[in-house]
Amino acid sequence: MAQSSSPISAVAERYAGSLFELAQQENSVAKVEADLNGFEALLNGSDDLTRLINSPVFSSEDQAKAIAAIADKANITGLVGNFLRVVARNRRLFAVPGMIKAFRQIAAEHRGEASAEVTSAHELTAAQQTELKAALKSIAGKDVAIAITVDPSLLGGLIVKMGSRQIDTSLKTKLNSLKLALKEVG
Predict the structure, then answer these.
(1) Which fold has domain 7-106?
(2) pLDDT tens, position by position, 118-158
(3) Which of 138, 9, 6, 23 lies closest to 80 in space, CA to CA?
């Protein structure tokens, strides 16, 4: 694994590595990954939950109670449910998004896959996802696990991050480049 550039990513990698080891021991890597994806969807869909995990104002007890209630309501049980409770008690909720990302990377490496983060202007169909995976496989030389997020502000196109590479074909970036070029001319 690459050296971390920030203390937050170092914390995230340590926790993700521990969670992966536990998931491997229980032969539940796929279930843990699915539960983490479910929690990430909740996090992306709720400004209040984002505030809860990022705000230092909440005590660890309040965060632990809230996370326990959310995990129970979302039926996130087993390793991930317990993991989120431990993270909350240890005041590390701010690093959960990084932990999820690191877990995905560790799981993909274990499966012999590369991992890529894809940001799209709109939901990708199954056919588009398959085509994107095939294109990325030709670049990486191995299967690629993709994590897709939707950002309508891109207007169109994709941003693909794979390892240290980033490919940005979004209309937003192209328009910003054009705007900058026009300012230089005028």
Answers:
(1) Peroxidase; domain 1 (1.10.520)
(2) 999 999 999 999 999 999 999 888 999 888 888 999 999 99
(3) 23
